[in-house]
Amino acid sequence: MRLRGTKLAQVYAQLHALLYVWTGGRIGGAIRVARGARPPVLLLETRGRRTGVWRKTPLIFLRDGENLVVVAANAGHPDHPAWWLNLAADPQAFVQIGNERRAVVGEAADGARRENLWRRFAAMYDGLDRYQQQAHRRFPVVVLRPSPETAGST
Questions:
Q1: pLDDT tens for each residue of the chain, 154 residues long
Q2: Domain spans of the chain?
Q3: CATH 3.30.559.10 matches 7-146
């Protein structure tokens, strides 16, 4: 059974986010997907581009200095994930790692920087290249850099 792109997948992601918030990240982390290790998971909170409602999405991430890097893979679905479309419309967002929450600004990496970050992310997350091949779209590699506090989030 494939969950990708279904209502059940949305419910699963919402439950995942709730468990993460309730437990400060102790529950709600990623399954073992990369060479037996559990990749780190953050919650990305973006404002809906049509509704204005703040939404939380659990994502695997990579640290790059003070920045965080996520990939808009959407589990290999042919469409970009809603969180990326929301972030492209309004780059101000929040991330939560464990119990720590902070404001960030998101932007797509390009050129050599994108390729470097892609290689590092793919080394951590075995499924990334396979997802890229099946999706037939170029996944945005998104850099989340620290920002002054953004108003309006829950």
A1: 445 556 666 666 677 676 766 666 666 555 444 445 678 889 999 999 999 999 999 899 999 999 999 999 988 888 999 999 999 999 999 999 988 999 999 999 999 999 999 999 999 888 888 889 888 899 999 999 999 865 555 5
A2: 7-146
A3: no
Q: What residue type is assigned to position 118 of the chain?
A: W
Separation between Cα atoms, residue 90 and residue 87, nearest integer Å: 5
Q: How far is CA 73 from the centre of its chain?
A: 9
What is the three-class DSSP state of 10?
Answer: helix
Euclidean distance between CA atoms 16 and 32, whole angstroms: 15
Buried b (16+ CB within 10 A) or exposed e, 110-132: eeeebeebbeebbebbeebeebb
